[in-house]
Fold:
Amino acid sequence: MKRGKRLGKIKGLSLHLIPFSEIAELSIAQRVRKILSLVLGNKIVILQGRLRAEEEARLIEDTMAMVEHVKNFKGIELAVIEPNLSNASFFVKMKHRIARSLVGDNSALTVVGPASVIKEIKKDPRKLELMIR
Amino acid sequence: MIRILKNFSRRILRSIFRRREKLKIGFYGPPNAGKTSLANRICKDWTGEEIGPVSNVPHETRKVQTKEEVKIEYKGKSLTFKIVDTPGIATKIDYEDFLKYGLKKSEAKRRAKEATKGIIEAIQWLDDVDAVIVVLDATQNPYSQVNITIIGNLVARKIPVLVVANKIDLKKASVKKVQNAFPEYEVVGISAKTGENMDEFYESLFSLAKKT
Structure:
């Protein structure tokens, strides 16, 4: 991203869905770059699955570097919603574990959007609320 | 992945070749949770000096600050720590938020710029601590992604964690909510401001040290 690049004006709310298969083969840097390039275009990204912990940390690091260099970019709002398996039976938990080890963790949904568009993401164990500016 | 492997191998080598004399304890959490207040209380109690200034304006700590040789004695045992107080981790920084606290525009912009660098520095320090105290504001919703990301990263790096639910002196505080959000971790409710429940905190700190 070039220093001093400006964000475009918001013309509406734009959601961009990324299926897990689209990022499955990408490296950490590529995944983060893909998400941030969409967010910088004022899109709200809905990613099937969730990023690994180190990818989330990298996303925050790169976001902060962007805040410094991209005019009007204030950062991101990030939230992950996962199926609540705390009360699930042993077999259901096992089924999820096997599925996750075979095809990756795609039972969750990750929402990433520009902080200039999303005011807040309210999250509790059961729901996710996007408060738009 | 390389970072995690590096960190893991360093820990193994360190445990084999030398006895650790000083534990590096990192204080992590979102902005304004009371990381510096808690670090100050510990440092003041055991060294007589504070580690850094505190204020109600978010991102007061914008650089990692450390205190060497903090020797804590508790119930006849003694441990020496290096305290690493880190800037609050956030996913967004808007200088306009600081204007609400009466800061001038130029000052607010400078603070925002320094805060972004501080967050990057805090994340990079994750590779260089032996154990972490995650300080959360017990009056706030604990289910924020930043809290989950911090703890997730510590788990991935195999760094022992103690969760502190701070500000229990305030009416709105709920240690139970924090415990419900992080049931797999030990949670201690304290007030860094008044010193409430610090005995339990020191007990948990010594248990945390054993896990390193």
